[in-house]
Design a protein that fits this description.
Blueprint lengths: L1 H38 L5 H16 L4 H12 L1 H4 L1 H7 L7 H32 L12
Length: about 140
């Protein structure tokens, strides 16, 4: 019986952390939207919200477990968030071939730039956090 209560307690604690992480993401998004509207900035509110979340996490010093779990779940489903935008392209029948060429070029260039930047960041972080004695430079 005690094992069942312990399992329920862990499940409730995990659900509470997950809800707190989701609430934190929602609060950051709402704060960003409010900032964008209040200051009439030419930056999307979601971007401002994520920047405010980043600043908050830098001040806090770590990522709370609930936020990490929610973020991980959302990142695993990220490809699904692009489906509506990709579907919308099929309804753009009045675009000229040059418009399609521009969309294609922007997609290819954006993808290649993202991959290159992620690879450079990964390389830098792997060097910085390499275990001692592995022969890697820790201050690159």
């Amino acid at each position: 019986m005690a094992a069942g209560n312990r399992q329920q307690s862990l499940t409730a604690r995990r659900a509470g952390g997950w809800l707190a992480g989701a609430a934190l993401l929602l609060a950051a998004n709402l704060a960003g939207n409010w900032l964008q509207a209040a200051l009439a900035l030419p930056v999307p509110g979601a971007v401002l919200g994520m920047l405010s979340l980043l600043l908050g996490l830098l001040v806090y010093g770590s990522v709370p477990r609930g936020l990490a779990e929610v973020s991980g779940a959302l990142l695993r489903l990220l490809a699904l968030l692009f489906l509506p935008a990709a579907t919308g392209l099929f309804f753009l029948d009045d675009l000229s071939p040059l418009d399609w060429l521009g969309l294609f070029a922007a997609t290819v260039f954006g993808t290649l730039a993202s991959i290159a930047l992620c690879a450079l960041l990964l390389k830098k972080l792997l060097r910085r956090y390499a275990p001692p004695g592995s022969g890697e430079d820790h201050h690159a």
